[in-house]
């Protein structure tokens, strides 16, 4: 460190005396003098993740600036697309290697010369801690800042929980910390998080101008720890703490309660003691199973979206998207594409269907404008990019055409063959279907450009798309489709095109397990309660009712449907919906009891754990079979699809991560104990034994 400080001081002195270059750089922090200002620039683009090396370089730069008499103020800025987005993803740990973030932030805050941070792009996590440690903050209008650590199940570090409430009070601080949502620049200015928002200038230029005004007015440092405006009303502060504690009571992860404890400490403990409590809270949360699962969920999305083996290829430019179909799924895809700057041409078979489709899209954008989500100008721009037509040849300008109808596989095959006649050879052709890929490709002249893009409903809200590849698909078609999905802000998960793909194959295994549980004597309401308590937004029986039991494959669901109990739309399914007191499964339970009696099926006594494990391991076993068959290459692909498409709780990490946390040997043992009741569901895939025998788990397969 002393050598780095000496080198930085040499740069500073040479710049002061005019002997050095105008801008001289350490490897990671550029140092430049402008009159009485030292400009320190984080130089690890694009997002300046705060590695130990960057932290050391930053400390050295600050020490050099402090010890240079001619420097009277410091502006901290950054290269790249963002000021700083936190620690490197692959180095997350309960405690950082020295120098710690706390050490760096304390050094910045203790600087005897004013420190102004110029924030652009995203300022998140450790970057947010740096910004709060600075004495003053200037932000770009399109920038944002915040503390997303709770989404990883941990408490922020770097004194964030102590400095933030001093600036903005407990209510705003806890909203930022407990939601994990970044704060946009205009709101940050209004809340007092920043001192100035740059409009006509860059944040760096505005920060330099602010520093010069401070020097002219002899304004000095303003350590955030010394600010008391957020702590003045102790009684109101503690009321806010109590209210937040009541709100998060029963939270499934520890981090929310520990964050509230830390913010409380900002009022009642000395600053250093509060920071120490923050560090202990972070370490305690870091190794919990929930935090491990949340980190797995975070990294899984990025790993699943990674595309290997296509080096040197770039996605073809898609200026116009062709969509075939007028149903809800097709319209959801259309709106998503319009929202992301694409022209959309919708092909329908009947003029009246297209009129309805246009009305629905117009209504969606009108509602968005009325709710303040978009301006009238944006509404007009997006609607101007949308065209509906019955002419197949009108899709000839599309770079990608997605068949999103509700037709049969045979009808889809004919439609795709007809479409191909009008499309240029470099246009990618896709279907939203989850089965029948070989049949649909049968009559195509260029099957190498045909693949599956399986959007799950509702397609606007679900952030994952299954990218199903036939064995002969071209790499260019793959790269283009992959880039299209990412352009929509969704996660593309690549797999082999086999019937059911991931989402539906795994979900159907769970529903088959529900069928068995119902015949074992478990009431629908109990199954749903157990799975909601596990963390699903809805139980499987109420979900099947919502989708329609006549669409389910299970014997029990089919029996209910033939009896007229087709689900929620029919007013009765596993539940009755006409009682006025919420769904009631009393009638369904009586029907199930009769079925058991007729079939001579004994009613079993099952614990809540027995119920949840049967359903969760049904999902994991279906996933293991997909891996074993080579349909999916990595367990994370299954986890991502089930979390994003089917509501699997993130703090359990998906079915394969949950199996890892249970233990592969224990999971296989439980599957064997369930298998006699329904071997097609619970007979363990041989992969379980292979992993157990070698002391491996599913995470090891993610590294292959």
Automatic annotation (TrEMBL):
SUPFAM superfamilies from the entry?
6-phosphogluconate dehydrogenase C-terminal domain-like, ClpP/crotonase, NAD(P)-binding Rossmann-fold domains
- Which part of the chain is the 3-hydroxyacyl-CoA dehydrogenase NAD binding domain? 321-495
**Which residue intervals define the domain 3-hydroxyacyl-CoA dehydrogenase C-terminal in the entry?**
500-566, 612-696
Q: Which reaction does it catalyse?
A: a (3S)-3-hydroxyacyl-CoA + NAD(+) = a 3-oxoacyl-CoA + NADH + H(+)
User: Does the record's keyword annotation contain Cell division?
Assistant: no
Looking up Pfam families in the UniProt record yields: 3HCDH, 3HCDH_N, ECH_1
User: For the region Disordered, what residue ranges are annotated?
Assistant: 1-21
Query: Which Gene Ontology terms describe the biological processes this protein takes part in?
Result: fatty acid beta-oxidation
Give the record's keywords alphabetically. Fatty acid metabolism, Isomerase, Lipid degradation, Lipid metabolism, Lyase, Multifunctional enzyme, NAD, Oxidoreductase, Peroxisome
Q: Which domain of life is it from?
A: Bacteria
State where the protein is found.
Answer: Peroxisome
| InterPro entries (alphabetical) | 3-OHacyl-CoA_DH_NAD-bd, 3HC_DH_C, 6-PGluconate_DH-like_C_sf, ClpP/crotonase-like_dom_sf, Enoyl-CoA_hydra/iso, NAD(P)-bd_dom_sf
The pathway noted for it is: Lipid metabolism; fatty acid beta-oxidation
GO molecular function list: (3S)-3-hydroxyacyl-CoA dehydrogenase (NAD+) activity; enoyl-CoA hydratase activity; isomerase activity; NAD+ binding
NAD is among the record's keywords: yes
Assembly, in brief, is:
Monomer.
Q: What name goes with this protein?
A: Uncharacterized protein
UniProt source species: Celeribacter ethanolicus
Taxonomic lineage is: Bacteria, Pseudomonadati, Pseudomonadota, Alphaproteobacteria, Rhodobacterales
